[in-house]
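Lecture 7 notes: from sequence to structure.

We start with a single chain of 91 residues. Read the sequence below before looking at the structure.
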Amino acid sequence: MPNIKSAEKRVHVTKRRTLRNASLRSALRTTLKKFDVTLSQNDVEQARQALRIATRALDKAATKGIIHRNTASRKKSRLTRRFNTYEKNMA
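Now the structure, written as tokens:
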């Protein structure tokens, strides 16, 4: 238990940020799962829209410091590559 008032505040702020970060990470995972589901439904336009949403969510998470920017870049690259192979196979 902190003895200094500023340390007490840091504990509260850390708890609040941890909860918010967990919520945002969970939402990000949900968005990525929705992309997977959309990809399995054999609809190119919906998959393209889901890819756009997932990419935006990854960028936003990286900007807010929820995930590292290289992690976001790697995930976007993999999602895009999966979408491109899917689109190529559908044509």
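The chain has one domain: 5-90. Keep this in mind for problem set 3.
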